[in-house]
Structures
1.
Amino acid sequence: MGDADKTDRKLIFAADLGGTHLRAATVDQEGRIHSRFKQNTPQVADAGAIVDAIVSAVHEFQKAAEISAVSLVVPGTVKVEEGAVVKAPNLPCLDGFPLAAALTDQLGLPAILENDANAAAVGEMWQGAAVGCHTIICVTLGTGVGGGIILDGKLWRGVDGSAAEIGHMCVDPFGGVACTCGSRGCLEVFASATAIVRMTREASPRYPDSVLQGNEDRTAEMIFEAGQQGDELALEIFRRMGVYLGIGIANLINILNPEIIVIGGGVVNGWELFEKHMHQQVEERAFPLLRVKIVRAKCGDDAGLLGAARLAF
Ligand SMILES: [Zn+2]
């Protein structure tokens, strides 16, 4: 039996720490997911409770498998070399917290941290829509808009770890909507799930016959479903969303000349409603001779977990 046999059996405990859910899985070197785990993220002002939740999940997995490292992705800026969270707007108790060191202390295993959208890009290149590509941009359309950029096979983190904040590219300087980052007119305020809900509310007085009227608890999913049935308000919102997204993507194409742009996150369910408008902007604005493909993500919710595992290997 060679060493290869031994390493084949080693699994990474990969965890995706979201503002709402803590999801985890054990992943092998071929990108196969062995077991899964999901619980609510502890909603406390204490980072210790989050560490405890991860530690007990790892202990549970260790009953069934040998775990060689822990790899965690968080929705925020991280200092990868130090394994510390810089700023996580949805989990403020982690701001400045040395999460990797805390996990290593309690588990005796190596631990690493990465930004969730960066990890999703790595996951899509390893097992998803960008297999075989080396220069890719991944855009995640969720509650916010995240991004990951891989150049010549290397994840581009920037000098402070905050590169690829695609959601905070300005796409509307005049009267643009205020963004949580402090700027105005960012892509995130036009292309996130939050933005779709807001834009629908703002536009609804002009569409008195819309099926979305009279419901103040609309979700992006409900708006998408209305659009599938031909609702004019929903179609107009996804048109606008696609236009802004296309402007942002055209900028990225002109700057980075990627092989492929992968679009993921929950809002990508509305692909059929925004795709045409997005492509139209790209055609009008991006250099015409470039070979870029723009595709839907393939790994779904697992992109971050798979990317985390890949980074740990
Ligand atoms: Zn912003």
2.
Amino acid sequence: MNDSKIIAVVGATGAQGGGLVRAICADPKGGFRARAVTRNVNSDKARALAALGAEVVAADVDDANSVARAFEGAYGAFCVTFYWDHFSPERESAQAAALARAAQTAGVRHAIWSTLEDTRKFVALSDDRMPTLMGKYKVPHFDAKGESDQVFTDLGVPVTFLLTSFYWENFIYFGMGPKKGPDGKYAITLPMGDQPLPSIAAEDIGRCAYGIFQRPDRIGKRLGIAGEHLTGSQMAAALSKALGVDVGYNAVAPEVYRGFGFPGAEDLGNMFQFNRDFAAEFGEPRNIAASRELNPKLQNFAQWLAENKSRIPLE
Ligand SMILES: NC(=O)c1ccc[n+]([C@@H]2O[C@H](COP(=O)([O-])OP(=O)(O)OC[C@H]3O[C@@H](n4cnc5c(N)ncnc54)[C@H](OP(=O)(O)O)[C@@H]3O)[C@@H](O)[C@H]2O)c1
């Protein structure tokens, strides 16, 4: 009989959940087994997780009943929502509530909620240093997550609040990689001034989550994670070294970034301004040594670049 504990992993075919499924499957004697939750059990990514030994089940976080079924019999649940698939904080809040209720209904013993700060606790809506967006948010994709923490608490879910950091994969997939300027030189553009940004390899988020499931004493805690805290200049220097081209750092003002016009530019402009103006408050919980204790494989930026530099597009 297999008496290992089931961890139901939402977003299993994605960045955060994928790292967790791979971490669980890589440690078959660790006492856990992965239940990968996906909308499409037949996708190549879902099949790849099954090939690693994960159970693969179907659920959609927009369908609360399907999530409740996916969490049935699970010891643990990794809960994450997908803001950038729809750009709606209200929908993200509804997804988080569905996850919290499913965790409560299934009686999971340890949930992890992948959250971020509700920035309105730092910058009141009336504060005009950054615009209020969508009527009641400063950083919609942060605020909706942070606001949802209370739902887990109110339902009595035994939960660890996991405060994630900026993925270095944003240089590959999120259009934030080095771009050639009118002067012909490459630069990354971040409205961070000279303040450090806590950042991490996406794969390490799941590995840290695995470390949290191994430590039930972390239930009820808020844990931040990061692989390194780096200024724009430090990231540009590391990119230059890894890519073998000169990459500068274009430290634009947040209002310039907000005006770039791509979907989510205002949200990200406010986010970086929050990261910059509250660098101490944002950085302090994202302790690197504590992250490494959860995940001994934690990478720094240079290590991540050594593995991933060929995937960074130079435009
Ligand atoms: N980019 C960053 O720097 C950063 C930093 C911190 C936090 N975040 C947050 O991370 C969150 C996204 O996590 P991620 O990066 O791990 O996601 P991701 O890589 O985009 O993957 C999401 C996976 O979730 C599944 N999914 C999407 N919609 C779903 C739904 N309605 N029901 C069930 N599954 C669904 C998809 O799988 P299937 O198609 O197989 O169902 C997809 O593979 C966002 O909310 C973002 O704000 C991002």
